[in-house]
Amino acid sequence: MHASVIYHITTKPQWLLAQKNGYYTSPNWLIEGFIHCCTKNQIAGVLDRYYSEQQHLLQLSIDILALSVPVKYELSPAVNELFPHIYGIIPLQAIIHVFEI
Q: What is the sign of the dihedral through the CA atoms of 30, 38, 59 and 4?
């Protein structure tokens, strides 16, 4: 069974846009149809692989029980792990914590 909280790494400008819009989405959502997330144990690897050169990052804690869109755990062949993907926008009330990295 999967945890009810998953995590998403984003930038401060993306978070400010979410607060303005009243919901969160990522640039990848429009391209791929889902928002990339990870489990608590995958955070360090995601930061190392994809965000090592970036600053002003935020870690969003998302309560998947507060979502009305599907969450699917799908294989990432690059690291041979299952990652949670959110297939839709995230209402702000589903984001239970914002942590500055």
A: positive
Q: What is the rounded CA–CA span in Å between residue 5 and residue 60? A: 10
Residue pLDDT, tens place only, 46-56: 999 989 888 88
Return the percentage of the chain with pLDDT > 90, whole number. Answer: 83
Contact 95, 24 (CB under 8 A): yes
CATH number of this structure's domain 5-100: 3.20.170.20
pTM: 0.92
Domain limits, the chain: 5-100
Place of tokens 């607060």: 19
Please answer whether residues 47 and 9 qualify as being in contact, where contact means their C-beta atoms are separated by less than 8 angstroms.
yes
Q: Which residues pair with 76 in a beta bridge?
A: 81
1 pLDDT band, cuts 50/70/90, is low
What is the distance of C-alpha 8 from the center of its chain?
Answer: 2
